[in-house]
Structure formats: structure tokens, C-alpha cells
User: Which sequence fits this backbone?
């Protein structure tokens, strides 16, 4: 609760920055970040993690809001991947055996949606995809990067 | 005696010391690590990776004359209504048909819980219909997925209450209820039965807390149930959850496992068979052997920590083949004790146990660091 005013302040700063390109450039490259800014960045990221977490766990409301249908089998991603385990985001891109092609994490997410879950694949740049990616990476933070590993 | 046999014998002596702590199987100390390295070095290529091929040695501890019989385990079918998911139905039917085809016929089937996915009477009825096709004696223990929609009402009506005990050909069989004693996490927030079930059905959720346990009343029952049993006579304990501490955040344990161990410690021939973990597992606590049974529905990954050092890890399942990594268990009680065969539905040429690190469900995860989820700790979850 106590950090909320800081978060709000930070979001206002971000909104201002977005409205003025020059200011945005300065924030990104020139000036020292304030605590409020860093908290705002974190809040923006964690909101995506939260949405991704809900999608990953099959929350029907979140799917509805984002207009996606990730599963038609009653299965959710987390049922085979508790804590995002065995998603191995740190191994992508790699040759993906099941697909028979060189694949990114987003390709793999869509494969899981279509094959085991029998859902409808989602746009690679969609809000739902970014949120799923955020949750999977966040769950596996601290893992060692090992792209290409099977 | 060759080097490998010497190593096996010495390792068995270390692991079976009288003063061994109950949970020692979950730790790898320097000495065991050294043994593991020696074994891997001595038998590279032939031995399963990073595993203790100890089972035959340990089985000797249970050698005693007695009647032989066969039985089968099916669990974790997680049935949804058949218009939602036909794969789970298909796999349950396959398991039942294969048990029925066992020759000679098994004495009984033990169904180890999680027949349903969301405790829906429709799901439980579907499961009962499939299991009714099996014309042998059937024993049941519940899983959490069967219980928390109506607090076990339908389950008990259909399959009877647990715990129970019965003596079969010189073996005392005990069926526990490790799921029905969750602390109340639903009343304070006025959860609907569906919400209560939903949290319980989320393995990596935190809302339902440490729900797996026997509870004081059942612990007293267990102590009474074994009080008249000779210390050297065989005991087989069936439970949905493992009876040791593997990975509490996913309830891969019972919270009162220390008390369970105290009750079982005086007995020399105890085997615990459990479901819930959907993976190949082996452990020992004290003199109790514990074997994890397969699910028919889907395999869980090995937990980020706590995999018992005695476990020979199963292979990485192919996510493109929904019959891979799952199946049922064919069991026999012979003079040597309980013998288990994993009937895993994968191509015949592939082994159940990992042969190399890159094919192992646990060794493959050397780079993986995992963190608990967040969304269920935020309002309104």
C-alpha cells in the first residue's frame, strides 16, 4: 500500500515522457533515474507478469478480456509447467524437435497452445503473447542463458 | 566381487544405518556424491545417469517367505467431462483394459486418487463407469481433485470412506486419506465451492496452503491400525501424497510426515505407494520404502529441489505425444517384497529411466532457476 503513491507518481512521469519524444530520450539515456521512475518501470513489468500468470493458469476472465482462447481441453499451461518449469525460455532460439524448425520462445508458446491445448494460436506481437512471455521469463529469472541447447 | 558390487554394498550400508534420519534420502552428502561419481565412472554408458541402481540390493532387506500376489495401481486420471477432454478418457480406458488383460489376473486394483479434475459429480461418475468395467476387487483412496467441490460427499458415496485397512495373503494393506484435512482457506473469504476447488486444483497455487496431511485423528487411527501387527510382517501403505518431505510448495509431502514416520519406524517391511507427483520417484525414510506411481493424465516436471537422491529419474516426456510419460503400475508382492513395474506408454525402444543427462527429467534442468507465481497472492486472489 505504501508504495502506491510512488507508483502513481512514476506512471505520471512516464505519461509525460511518452507525450514528449525529446524528454523520453533524455530519460532513457541522459538523466539519472529516480526511485519513483524505477518503481514505475517495475510496476509496468509486473503488471504484464501478473496478466501472463493468469493466462498461464487458465483464468477465463483474462482470456476473455484479451480475446484469446488458449485451450480447448480444460488444460492450462501451468498444469504441465508449475512455476513455469520445463519451459526453458533461456534455451531459445533453438532447433525445436517437435516443430522440426528453428524456433523462438513465442513459436514454442504457440505450438503448446495449438497442440497439447488444442487452442487457437495467438499473434506473435499480441498483448497476450507479451504477457505470457513476461511471466515465463520472470518465473525463470536467474537461470543461465544457454541458447540452442536441446 | 567387482568394483561396482563393492560400491553398491557399501552404499547400501551407508543408507541403511540405524541412525539414519528419516529424510536422509532427500539429501546428497559428500560420501554419497562420491559413490554416485564412482558408479557413473565405472559404468558409463551402461548405467542410468546419476542414479542409484540400488533397488535390488534394498529389496533384499524385505526378503521373507510369504504368499505371492499381483496387483495394479491406477491414479491421477484427472477426468474432465468427456465433451471437454477425450484424451484423458481414452487414457483411463486404456489403463483399465491393460489391467484387465493382466495374466494371471491381479488380486486387486488400487485406485490412488484424482479420478476427477474438478470434483464434479459428472467427472466422478464418468470415472466410476470406466472403472466398473474392471472385474476385479477395487480399493480406493481419494485425491484432492476428487474432494473439494463438495468436501468428499460424492466420492465417499461412490467409493467409500478412508482410511481403511485389510489383510491380504499375509500383508496388511492400509489406505490413507491425505487430502481431506486441509486447513479452512475458504470460509474467511466466502469462496464458492468452485473457487475452493479451483485453488485446490492449482498445483503451484499458494492459496490452499499446506493441505496435504493425515491430521491428528487419522494419525491415532494409523497407530491403532498397526498396533497388533508383527514388526517383521509386511505392511503396504497407500497414500495419494508422498509420506515424506519432497517439495512442500506443490504439496509433494504430507505436513505431518514426522509423526507418520514415528508410527512406521518400528516396522521392518513397509512400502508406501503414492500418486499425486505424476512421475517416477523412489525414496527411503528409515526402513520405509516409498515408490511414486505414474499418472495416466500428464507427467509433472520434477520439483526444482528435493528430488530424492535415490530416485532414478524418468526420461523427459515428449509434449507432442500425450501418451508419453504416463501410464499405470504393475505390482507384485513376492518373497522379496513389493516389486514395481512402470507401465509407461512410450515407444517400446525407449527406456522409462533416463540414460543420459540430456534425456533426464531432472538432470536436464541444470540451468533452471524457478520462482513462485504472483497472481494468486494479489487481490482478489
Assistant:
Amino acid at each position: 500500500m505504501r508504495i502506491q503513491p510512488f507508483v502513481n507518481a512514476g506512471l505520471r512521469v512516464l505519461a509525460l515522457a511518452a507525450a514528449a519524444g525529446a524528454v523520453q530520450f533524455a530519460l532513457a539515456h541522459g538523466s539519472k533515474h529516480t526511485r519513483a521512475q524505477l518503481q514505475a518501470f517495475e510496476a509496468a513489468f509486473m503488471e504484464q507478469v501478473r496478466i501472463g500468470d493468469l493466462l498461464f493458469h487458465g483464468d477465463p476472465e483474462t482470456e476473455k478480456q484479451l480475446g484469446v482462447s488458449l485451450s480447448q481441453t480444460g488444460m492450462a499451461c501451468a498444469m504441465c509447467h508449475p512455476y513455469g518449469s520445463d519451459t526453458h525460455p533461456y534455451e531459445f532460439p533453438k532447433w525445436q524437435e517437435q516443430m522440426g524448425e528453428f524456433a523462438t520462445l513465442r513459436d514454442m508458446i504457440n505450438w503448446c497452445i495449438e497442440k497439447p491445448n488444442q487452442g487457437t494460436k495467438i499473434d506473435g506481437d499480441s498483448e497476450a503473447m507479451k504477457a505470457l512471455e513476461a511471466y515465463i521469463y520472470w518465473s525463470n529469472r536467474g537461470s543461465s542463458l544457454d541458447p540452442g541447447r536441446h | 566381487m567387482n568394483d561396482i558390487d563393492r560400491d553398491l554394498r557399501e552404499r547400501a550400508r551407508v543408507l541403511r544405518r540405524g541412525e539414519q534420519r528419516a529424510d536422509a534420502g532427500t539429501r546428497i552428502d559428500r560420501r554419497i556424491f562420491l559413490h554416485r561419481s564412482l558408479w557413473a565412472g565405472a559404468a558409463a554408458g551402461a548405467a542410468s545417469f546419476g542414479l542409484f541402481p540400488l533397488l535390488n540390493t534394498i529389496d533384499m532387506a524385505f526378503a521373507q517367505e510369504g504368499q505371492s500376489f499381483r496387483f495394479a495401481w491406477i491414479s491421477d486420471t484427472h477426468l474432465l467431462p468427456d465433451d471437454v477432454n477425450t484424451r484423458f478418457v481414452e487414457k483411463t480406458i486404456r489403463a483399465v483394459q491393460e489391467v484387465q488383460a493382466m495374466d494371471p489376473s491381479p488380486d486387486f486394483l488400487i485406485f490412488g486418487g484424482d479420478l476427477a479434475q474438478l470434483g464434479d459429480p459428472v467427472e466422478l461418475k464418468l470415472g466410476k463407469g470406466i472403472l466398473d468395467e474392471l472385474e476385479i476387487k477395487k480399493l480406493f483412496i481419494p485425491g484432492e481433485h476428487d474432494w473439494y467441490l463438495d468436501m468428499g460427499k460424492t466420492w465417499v458415496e461412490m467409493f467409500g470412506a478412508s482410511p481403511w485397512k485389510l489383510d491380504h495373503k499375509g500383508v496388511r494393506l492400509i489406505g490413507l486419506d491425505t487430502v481431506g484435512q486441509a486447513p479452512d482457506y475458504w470460509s474467511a473469504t466466502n469462496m464458492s465451492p468452485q473457487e475452493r476447488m479451483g485453488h485446490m486444483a492449482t498445483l503451484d497455487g499458494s492459496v490452499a496452503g499446506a493441505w496435504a496431511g493425515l491430521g491428528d485423528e487419522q494419525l491415532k487411527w494409523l497407530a491403532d491400525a498397526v498396533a497388533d501387527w508383527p514388526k517383521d510382517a509386511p505392511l503396504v501403505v497407500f497414500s495419494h501424497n508422498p509420506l515424506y518431505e519432497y517439495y512442500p510448495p506443490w504439496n509433494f509431502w504430507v505436513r505431518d510426515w514426522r509423526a507418520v514416520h514415528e508410527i512406521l519406524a518400528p516396522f521392518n517391511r513397509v512400502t508406501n505407494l503414492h500418486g499425486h507427483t505424476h512421475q517416477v520417484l523412489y525414496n527411503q525414510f528409515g526402513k520405509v520404502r516409498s515408490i511414486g506411481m505414474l499418472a495416466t493424465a500428464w507427467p509433472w516436471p520434477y520439483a526444482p529441489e528435493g528430488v530424492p537422491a535415490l530416485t532414478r529419474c524418468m526420461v523427459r516426456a515428449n509434449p507432442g505425444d500425450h501418451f508419453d510419460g504416463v501410464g499405470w503400475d504393475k505390482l507384485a508382492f513376492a518373497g522379496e517384497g513389493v516389486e514395481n513395474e512402470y507401465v509407461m506408454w512410450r515407444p517400446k525402444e525407449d527406456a522409462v529411466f533416463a540414460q543420459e543427462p540430456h534425456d533426464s527429467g531432472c538432470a536436464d534442468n541444470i540451468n533452471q532457476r524457478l520462482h513462485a507465481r504472483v497472481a494468486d497472492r494479489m487481490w482478489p486472489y
User: Anything to note?
Assistant: Residues 11-65 of chain B have pLDDT under 50 and may be disordered.
